[in-house]
TrEMBL record:
<keyword id="KW-0963">Cytoplasm</keyword>
<dbReference type="InterPro" id="IPR036192">
    <property type="entry name" value="Cell_div_ZapA-like_sf"/>
</dbReference>
<protein>
    <recommendedName>
        <fullName>Cell division protein ZapA</fullName>
    </recommendedName>
</protein>
<comment type="subunit">
    <text>Homodimer. Interacts with FtsZ.</text>
</comment>
<keyword id="KW-0131">Cell cycle</keyword>
<keyword id="KW-0717">Septation</keyword>
<dbReference type="InterPro" id="IPR007838">
    <property type="entry name" value="Cell_div_ZapA-like"/>
</dbReference>
<dbReference type="GO" id="GO:0030428">
    <property type="term" value="C:cell septum"/>
</dbReference>
<dbReference type="Pfam" id="PF05164">
    <property type="entry name" value="ZapA"/>
</dbReference>
<dbReference type="GO" id="GO:0043093">
    <property type="term" value="P:FtsZ-dependent cytokinesis"/>
</dbReference>
<comment type="function">
    <text>Activator of cell division through the inhibition of FtsZ GTPase activity, therefore promoting FtsZ assembly into bundles of protofilaments necessary for the formation of the division Z ring. It is recruited early at mid-cell but it is not essential for cell division.</text>
</comment>
<dbReference type="GO" id="GO:0005886">
    <property type="term" value="C:plasma membrane"/>
</dbReference>
<dbReference type="GO" id="GO:0005829">
    <property type="term" value="C:cytosol"/>
</dbReference>
<keyword id="KW-0175">Coiled coil</keyword>
<dbReference type="GO" id="GO:0000921">
    <property type="term" value="P:septin ring assembly"/>
</dbReference>
<keyword id="KW-0132">Cell division</keyword>
<feature type="coiled-coil region">
    <location>
        <begin position="60"/>
        <end position="87"/>
    </location>
</feature>
Amino acid sequence: MSQTQKTKTTVDIYGQQYSIIGSESTSHIRLVASIVDDKMREISSKNPSLDINKLAVLTAVNIVHEHLKLKEEYEELEKQLEQAKNEKD
């Protein structure tokens, strides 16, 4: 059984340094960190009095919400594609 190669990448999220170890490419990990950082800054600009813990939780809630909406849209598109295939046959 082979193990996936792990890489360690240091990223900056909302002014804090984090070392992330994962099997994804360094560029992917940096992109993820950048999206989290951007979302935290967006939420913080609208709610400047939030402490870091509440900001982190609200960021997670917002990102999971966006993920679920995209997943629903993807599933709906899959259904439409399947229906189109069935109508064609």
